[in-house]
């Protein structure tokens, strides 16, 4: 490894160390959760490596033990990770580098990798392309390793962990409350709660979620489109 690559790796390691601590906790929880659902450690390890989308992996874990609806799963996965469409547009210029690294970085662009690669001011002595590659690679490794660790650790637990599946519900509640505190108005939050509640009553728990997310996305698309047209006409 030459000096430029070494400097890029060291700088990427420094920038991703805080992410590693968070991934260890959530990944181990995910691995233990998968074990409690009846899967050995290979499942969370391979899912972490191939899917590499934390919140979606928790959802997929619960879907694997129920009746499989391919279209619902596809729509759910698409909507949950639709934010990556906006990430990718923001990274078009930064990821415009030659070689195979670009394709791996596109595959591995999670929330944390996007945040670090988009906001970090890379020193002149550090190769920018290799820095972004190592950020993606390290974050990927943290998540796969912690998920595998959780799967292995879950097999050593011999006491009752009923209720661990609530961890995903708790995670989304925390994210929702955090958004509620930070936002200037609560239109988006109230819209989400209202639409989801109505469709839950009408459609039941098996189908309400993907349709709720589609309808919410459509509502805000129309809302933002009207705002843009109003701005252009003024």
TrEMBL record:
Keywords (A to Z) from UniProt: Cell membrane, Membrane, Transmembrane, Transmembrane helix, Transport
Superkingdom of the organism of origin: Bacteria
Any single GO BP term: L-valine transmembrane transport
Annotated localization: Cell membrane
InterPro entries tied to this protein: Brnchd-chn_aa_trnsp_permease
Cellular-component GO terms for this entry: plasma membrane
TM regions (residue ranges): 12-35, 41-64, 71-92, 131-154, 161-181, 193-222
Family statement drawn from the similarity comment of this UniProt entry: Belongs to the AzlC family.
Protein name: Branched-chain amino acid transporter
Protein species of origin: Liquorilactobacillus aquaticus DSM 21051
């Amino acid at each position: 490894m030459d000096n430029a690559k070494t400097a890029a790796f060291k700088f990427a390691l420094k920038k991703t160390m805080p992410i590693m601590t968070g991934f260890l906790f959530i990944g181990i929880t995910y691995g233990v959760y998968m074990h409690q659902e009846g899967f050995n450690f290979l499942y969370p390890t391979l899912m972490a490596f191939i899917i590499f989308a934390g919140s979606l992996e928790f959802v997929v874990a619960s879907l694997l033990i129920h009746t499989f609806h391919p279209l619902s799963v596809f729509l759910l996965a698409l909507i949950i990770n639709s934010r990556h469409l906006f990430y990718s547009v923001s990274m078009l210029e930064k990821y415009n580098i030659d070689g195979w690294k670009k394709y791996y970085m596109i595959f591995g662009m999670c929330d944390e990798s996007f945040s670090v690669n988009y906001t970090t001011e890379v020193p002149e002595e550090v190769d920018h392309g290799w820095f972004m590659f190592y950020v993606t690679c390290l974050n990927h490794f943290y998540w796969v390793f912690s998920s595998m660790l959780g799967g292995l650790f879950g097999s050593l637990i011999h006491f009752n962990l009923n209720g661990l599946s609530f961890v995903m519900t708790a995670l989304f509640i925390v994210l929702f409350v955090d958004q509620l505190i930070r936002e200037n108005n609560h239109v988006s939050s109230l819209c989400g709660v209202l639409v989801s509640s109505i469709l839950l009553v009408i459609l039941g728990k098996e189908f309400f979620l993907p349709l709720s997310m589609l309808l919410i996305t459509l509502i805000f698309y129309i809302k933002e489109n009207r705002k843009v047209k109003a701005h252009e006409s003024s």
